[in-house]
Amino acid sequence: MKVVVLGTAAADGIPQPFCTCDTCTEARRTGEVRCPGGVLIDGELLIDAPPGLGAAVARAGVDLTGVRTMAISHAHSDHWDPAILLHRSWQTPERPLRIIAPAAVLDIARQWLAPHSPVELVTAQPGAGINLENHFVRVLPATHGRTAHGRTPDPWAAEAVLFEVLSDDAALFYGADTGLPDHVLLAAVAEAQYDVALLELTFGRTGPTTPGHLDHTTFPATLDAFREVGAIGPDTDVVAIHLGHHNPPAIALEAALTGWGARTVPDGTHLDYRGEQSAPPRRPRRPRTVLVTGGVRSGKSAYAEAQAAADGEPVTYLATGWTAGEDAEWNRRIADHAARRPAHWHTVETTDPAAALANVEAGTVVIDCLAVWLTRLLDDAHAWEDAGLAQATVAAATDALTTALARCRASRVFIVTNEVGSGVVPASSSGRLFRDLLGRLNSTVAEHCDEVVLLVAGRPLRLDGPQPPTPSDTGEL
Predict the structure, then answer these.
(1) Domains in the chain: boundaries
(2) Which DSSP string corresponds to 349-382?
(3) How far apart are CA 323 and CA 211, in angstroms?
(4) Rounded CA separation 99/186 (Å)
(5) Architecture of domain 288-474
(6) How far is CA 343 from CA 41, 79, 175, in A?
(7) Which residues lie closer than 8 Å to 278 by C-beta, 6 or more apart?
(8) Which one of 337, 344, 346, 448 is the catalytic residue?
(9) Cα separation of 388 and 459, whole Å?
(10) Is 337 a catalytic residue?
(11) pLDDT 10s digits, 321-356
């Protein structure tokens, strides 16, 4: 993995143009200049795109012509300048681009994109993993939106995220902006064994500080916490970024960082983390996952099956349906589904798709479908009349399924489900329970998928945008 640290400063840079503190005065005397900037990985993945990015790229002696993906941590201006999309369109209007970012960033990006622009917008949901051409990106939760009394009213800070990037030879952590890690972040990075950790250090020993950033007390505390859970070790290159001028002058700052097992680098520094050739790949074999949803007879299964067959890989079909005694019409549906599948596909009839996924070694998987699986879960738990038991049963099964998806050794997984919440409110309590549980199940699984496709009258519509609110926030019946 080759990393170019394009900029290392917090929002107002070093020296701060209106400041005469010791740090800014010393920086002017020595010619030290630090500006906000992103990180370029292997020439094709750009993390954060602040104003002045073009100058930072030029100073580093690189260009952005090979960038296929931008991962943006949040919408604050020192991390996201949407004008880069306009500038890019003037030069390479037809070249595809993927943007992985929180909802506010994507909302702004849409305003800078021409109609039918080949730009894919992917919501950065903590916990989600995205397979790129040569990297795997995992979205991690930040604590940038924290204050001493909880969440700040700043929604852009509240939705900030961090990123983990894995290639075949290295693992990188990108942490700007964030405060002290909470138990959620520590659990997410446990045993990661990063080769390089880029971690913010906005504030110094004294003076202003906020819980949503790190200073000379919380920065070493964060490193200690990361070491305790195995995220960083003695060989991890810890580089302080997002440096504010409230830090001490360069010599004193470097001395403090050395004591903590970290360092600074100048803007434009090129770093190389190529592992030994004999070492096993660091990049996990997480499959590309696609959720295929839609109404009854909308073409969901046919679409998933056609996509699964497209590249000729072996296909494992996890069928959650079942024959039902004297119900001839239902049994005929099951038989028709089975007859449509190619004979060389391997079909597994299962009530536990998570366990079945663990037995798949390669190829493509189709799971058809979540709605039928949900019915069987409620039947087996005798939970149709007990909402609490039903919710607990489905939550546990959903956790097992999403974990199995992340660990599956297949190359692709297509998951078929139904949309049942677009009509009238069901007349029965069991109908309302099923509708609510399936909606939550679909939303949760979608957060762990690379793509969501909605089938309407046989036509696939690819969905993107912010995640829906939690059911408790919707006000729905």
Answers:
(1) 2-272, 288-474
(2) E-S-HHHHHHT--SSEEEEE-HHHHHHHHHHHHT
(3) 57
(4) 26
(5) 3-Layer(aba) Sandwich (3.40)
(6) 44, 52, 49
(7) none
(8) 337
(9) 37
(10) yes
(11) 766 666 777 677 777 777 778 888 999 989 899 999
Beta-strand relationship, 161-166 and 196-200: unpaired
- If pLDDT is split at 50, 70 and 90, which confidence band does 282 have? low
Retrieve residue 22's tokens.
């010791």
CATH label, 2-272, candidates 3.40.50.2300, 3.40.50.10960, 3.60.15.10, 3.40.1190.20: 3.60.15.10
* DSSP, residue by residue, 392-442: HHHHHHHHHHHHHHHH--SSEEEEE-----SSSPPSSHHHHHHHHHHHHHH
Structure token digits, residue 423: 């009509």
Q: Which of 310, 320, 309, 311 is nearest to 344 (CA)?
A: 309
The answer to whether 418 and 295 have CB atoms below 8 angstroms apart is: yes
* 224-236: b (≥16 Cβ within 10 Å) or e: ebbeebebbeeeb
Element spanning 260, H or E: helix 250-260
